[in-house]
């Protein structure tokens, strides 16, 4: 059955320079299936650094199914060894671990770009060598010990895919096909056979191999390669090439069509395809760009991996800080949420066109939800939706539209806001024509359609507003156009297509007149770029009461991109109901500038946090495993998730703007007495219970880490979960204990560093400690005291700096993740890897969970093998405080 004609009237915000009358139509036919959801387009190249960088919550939430990493013994990058990161990758959703075997070599392009000969003798046990020939091609020895390492040390060697050659056409050994074709083909066979020999001697069966791995679609080379591989029984298991550049959005599908035609012409069984590098700088972290690429790959049912343009360990610029989401991460998460669905036909205004409206749509019959993801293009959007089956969705449906907007590569994006709802739309013959209340060129949108729920969908539950920096009243500053087509895509995009720079005079300011609905506390967020150093601005309210806006450093990649790699800064401001002028200034007095205040400004956001910013995660948006599902068949529990038994669970990915305590509430129904286990970031931290059948709200006060937190819900006796809600309770943070690093007991070479105020550093109190580690004696110690003087589960939030680089690369900073170990005297040890912070005086925060088993055993921090990060302060907090409560719910 089709749906009754319904139009959602709404105002539309057009992109700059766009005619308001123009409208793009995206048509979705939910009755026309295009196959099982593949979900492989959000793979990454070097997206993983070391264990915990990115965090498990970011990995799991992004639903990463495939990645290419450095080979064991590899020296191409300081981090990202496949064996070292495989546990995190395979933890939930990881399927295929690809490795670049040539990453054994430290330089780009490998071995000076010249094919090695026989000048070395390698030691197979550890990859070391002597400069003497031994009658064996040097690279074949590398292939053998890399494959041997996977075969003998990986827990899942059958889930690896070996890539013997990366971009062989791009200057790496075999660029001249006319003279080196035969050499490459012979080398392909030699490496293929060697990999299979190693797996065979360990009884592992067939080793999967991918190739040829060209820089782009190369029809002549591909034909020669496949013809030879077929004749010599060395066909790859995965066919690989790269799609890099702006125009590839136009040509991608034609390349794929040509490849499949080539297979058919050669009489080959179709192979799986992985585009192991796709996209440009401009695409990363930008939902409206990402969805265009994802829609192509999902339509073709192939896999792909985001290109490596910046540094390892941040999902290719699709995550922020140490544990936070940028807008790109939410796009990954939405895409991963489609697992278990079947995709359906989507008709955009145009295919094979650069920067146009594109979408992905799917139906999850088990959980009775239909989803449309879309973005791109310059015009307002009308969705023409048809084909919803009344046998699945019933007579009426609820519709929710969520939006995620560009927040910069390093800027924090909060939980996507609901911008439009329709409650109880009747399903008859016809279509739904859905106009979005706002439309942002670089944003992406999620439309979720379910049977009518008992929960009433609500739009804009928390008041928030925003403005582009270029639309504020500017003094001593310049608006710059940021053309998304400029520079061949080697740039990070600006919200609205423009930003504000040259904010470098004492009188520079940006003023925003805004009306707030009530007296209370508001979060003021600035999306902007602090190139390579931390900086400061002053925020005035109605010309008075200035407070410092502190920025951490952002990546200074090149002279151009250093102004475009944008992060975010957040500050809380008290406002009375009514109209105010918020003035962000480069100086406090108009005479002198604040330190490093020459910061690019992109966008301002203001959000009401007076009530703790309660954020709901309804059952229709969660992920389900082990047989758990959303049901609409239970009286008074339509749209609730049925979770029962040891194997069933629901996963929620919730965002915390700051580390601290939150009331995590569960709204549910039970058919009798029941218990519910709540796991946060892999630890069971609380059990809530209901005494009898009924409707309940259970609340536990939990410590959450800044950024994304993975919450798992289980219940042996069973429950019907309606939603999970988080509410910030800042007053409860007094239960945590903060110790300045300079006030700890220092041992060995550990010393205090004082950061001059002129440096713009965000170090608490202007001091930190360094030279921790690189020897067992170089530690610092915290004695136990009130607040953490009992055994139990704790979070240790560490404010740290790490700007260490190792090795050289032509265009990538070779970042090193530093390890910090925390040892309880008389107890155990916990550790974490701490990612790059861009500057030694710029401090980020990472949380390390620890279980303390004594009441008074001091905590020692260090790293006997290498340097730990520099430390600003340590906050120790119980994972849960108080007793969970349960009250009846209407």
From TrEMBL:
Residue ranges of every copy of the CBM6 domain listed in the record: 465-607, 737-877
Keyword presence, Signal: yes
Keywords: Signal
Domain of life: Bacteria
Signal peptide annotation: 1-21
InterPro entries: CBM6 (IPR005084), Galactose-bd-like_sf (IPR008979), GH (IPR017853)
Stated name of the protein: CBM6 domain-containing protein
Gene source species: Actinoplanes sichuanensis
């Amino acid at each position: 059955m089709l749906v009754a004609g319904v139009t959602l009237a709404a105002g539309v915000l057009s992109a700059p320079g766009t005619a308001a009358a123009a409208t793009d139509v995206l048509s979705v036919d939910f009755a026309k299936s295009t196959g099982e959801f593949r979900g492989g387009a959000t793979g990454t190249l070097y997206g993983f650094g070391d264990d915990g960088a990115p965090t498990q919550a970011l990995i799991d939430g992004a639903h990463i199914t495939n990645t290419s990493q450095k080979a064991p013994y590899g020296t191409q990058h300081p981090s990202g060894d496949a064996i070292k990161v495989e546990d995190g990758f395979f933890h939930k959703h990881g399927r295929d671990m690809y490795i670049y075997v040539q990453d054994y070599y430290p330089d780009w392009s490998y071995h000076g770009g010249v094919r090695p000969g026989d000048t070395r003798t390698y030691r197979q046990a550890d990859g070391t060598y002597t400069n003497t020939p031994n009658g064996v091609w040097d690279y074949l020895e590398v292939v053998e010990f890399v494959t041997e390492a996977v075969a003998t040390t990986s827990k899942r060697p059958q889930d690896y895919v070996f890539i013997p050659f990366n971009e062989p056409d791009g200057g790496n050994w075999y660029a001249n096909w006319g003279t080196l074709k035969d050499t490459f083909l012979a080398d392909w066979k030699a490496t293929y056979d060697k990999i299979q020999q190693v797996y065979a001697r360990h009884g592992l069966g067939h080793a999967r191999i991918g190739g040829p791995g060209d820089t782009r679609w190369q029809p002549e080379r591909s034909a020669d390669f496949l013809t030879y591989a077929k004749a010599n029984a060395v066909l790859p298991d995965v066919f690989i090439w790269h799609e890099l550049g702006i125009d590839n959005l136009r040509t991608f599908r034609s390349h794929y069509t040509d490849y499949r035609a080539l297979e058919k012409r050669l009489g080959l069984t179709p192979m799986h395809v992985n585009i192991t590098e796709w996209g440009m700088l401009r695409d990363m972290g930008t939902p409206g760009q990402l969805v265009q690429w994802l829609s192509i790959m999902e339509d073709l049912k192939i896999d792909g991996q985001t290109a490596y343009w910046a540094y390892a360990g941040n999902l290719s610029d699709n995550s922020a800080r140490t544990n936070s989401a940028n807008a790109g991460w939410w796009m990954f998460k939405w895409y991963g949420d489609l697992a278990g669905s079947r995709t359906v036909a989507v008709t955009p205004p145009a295919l094979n066109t650069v920067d146009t409206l594109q979408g992905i749509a799917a139906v999850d019959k088990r959980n009775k939800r239909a989803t449309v993801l879309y973005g791109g293009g310059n015009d307002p959007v009308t969705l023409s939706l048809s084909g919803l089956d009344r046998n699945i969705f019933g007579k009426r449906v609820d519709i929710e539209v969520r939006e995620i907007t560009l927040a910069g590569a390093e800027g924090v994006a909060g939980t996507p806001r609901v911008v439009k709802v329709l409650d109880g739309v009747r399903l008859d013959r016809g279509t739904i024509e859905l106009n979005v209340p706002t439309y942002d060129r670089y944003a992406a949108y999620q439309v979720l359609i379910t049977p009518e729920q008992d929960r009433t969908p609500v739009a804009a539950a928390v008041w928030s507003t925003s403005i582009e920096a270029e639309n504020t009243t500017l003094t001593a500053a310049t608006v710059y156009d940021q053309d998304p087509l400029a520079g061949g895509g080697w740039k990070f995009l600006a919200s609205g297509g423009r930003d504000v720079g040259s904010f470098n005079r004492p009188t520079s300011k940006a003023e925003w007149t805004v009306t707030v609905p009530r007296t209370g506390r508001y979060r003021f967020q600035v999306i902007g770029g602090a190139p390579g150093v931390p900086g400061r601005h002053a925020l005035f309210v109605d010309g008075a009461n200035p407070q410092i806006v502190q920025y951490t450093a952002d990546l200074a990649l090149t002279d151009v991109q250093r102004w475009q790699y944008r992060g975010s800064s957040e500050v809380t401001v008290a406002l009375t109901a009514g109209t105010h002028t918020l003035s962000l200034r480069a100086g406090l007095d108009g005479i002198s500038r604040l330190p490093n205040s020459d910061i690019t400004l992109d966008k301002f956001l203001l959000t009401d946090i007076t009530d703790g910013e309660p954020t709901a995660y309804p059952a229709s948006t969660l992920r389900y495993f082990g047989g758990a599902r959303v049901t609409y068949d239970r009286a008074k529990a339509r749209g609730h998730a049925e979770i029962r038994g040891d194997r069933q669970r629901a996963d929620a990915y919730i965002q915390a703007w700051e580390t601290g305590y939150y009331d995590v509430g569960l709204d549910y129904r039970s058919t009798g007495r029941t218990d519910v286990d709540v796991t946060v970031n892999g630890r069971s931290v609380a059990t809530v219970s209901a005494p009898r059948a009924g409707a309940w709200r259970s609340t536990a006060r939990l410590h959450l880490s800044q950024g994304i937190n993975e919450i798992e819900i289980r219940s042996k006796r069973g429950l019907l979960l309606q939603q999970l809600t988080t509410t910030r309770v800042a007053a409860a943070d007094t239960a945590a204990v903060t110790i300045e690093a300079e006030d700890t007991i220092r041992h060995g070479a550990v010393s205090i560093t004082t950061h001059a105020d002129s440096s713009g550093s965000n170090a608490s109190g202007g001091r930190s400690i360094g030279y921790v580690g690189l020897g067992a004696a170089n530690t610092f110690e915290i004695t136990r005291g009130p607040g953490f003087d009992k055994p139990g589960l704790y979070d240790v939030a560490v404010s740290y700096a790490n700007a260490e680089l190792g090795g050289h690369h032509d265009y990538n900073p070779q970042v090193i993740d530093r390890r910090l170990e925390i040892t309880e005297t008389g107890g155990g040890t916990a550790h974490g890897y701490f990612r790059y912070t861009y500057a030694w005086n710029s401090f980020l925060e990472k949380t390390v969970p620890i279980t303390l088993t004594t009441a008074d055993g001091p905590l020692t921090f260090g790293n006997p093998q290498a340097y730990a990060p520099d430390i600003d302060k340590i906050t120790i907090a119980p994972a849960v405080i108080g007793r969970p409560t349960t009250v009846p719910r209407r």
